[in-house]
Amino acid sequence: MAKPKHDYSGEAFLKKIEELAKKGYTDKEIAYEVELTQTYFSDLKRESDVISEALARGRAKINNIVRQRFLAVALGGLKVKTITKQKSKFSDMMTDQGLGDMIVHETETELAPNLSALGTWLFNHDEEWRKQTIDGKKLDITSDGKEINANPLVFVSANELSEDQLQGLIKAQIGEDNINADSSNDTSS
Fold first, then answer.
1. Distance CA 27, CA 20 (A)
2. What is the per-residue burial (b if ≥16 Cβ within 10 Å, else e) of 148-168?
3. Burial of 57 by CB count in 10 Å (0-12 exposed, 13-18 middle, 19+ buried)?
4. pLDDT (tens digit, 9 = 90+) per residue, 27-58?
5. Eight-state DSSP code of residue 101
């Protein structure tokens, strides 16, 4: 058997994959960086808890940083500094007076709260908010959100109903007149 490229339980190898995971690398990219195939790296990860733990430690660190930044942007109030440098048309005169040949404009603004980010944060971290959001939305792909014949749509599995119950629901959904018209069209053909 060939000698492995790395000591897969060695401190140097584990430190390297933890650092790569902390930089946001995917498993495929990490495998490439340590000169292994993606399949072999996957097998190693499955067989070795220390490799999985090293990846988890690295990703936990970057996730924490990203989570903090996401929340900071969501809440707003971050200061953003913009520096604009512009060459002056009077640069010769300004240079002679020791002022330099650039005009610098510096502005500082405060970011407003990001409502989309706030909603995402609440959806993922506040159970009550998530429940209200999910309950407040109706899934109705058949009528583009409109009611048919003033009757709301009912979604059930057909095998949960008797034939009479199924026919009753169909009549309620599309109207009894439409059923009779459809059945008379079917017999004429």
1. 9
2. eeeeebeeeeeeeeeeeeeee
3. middle
4. 999 999 998 999 999 999 999 899 999 999 99
5. S
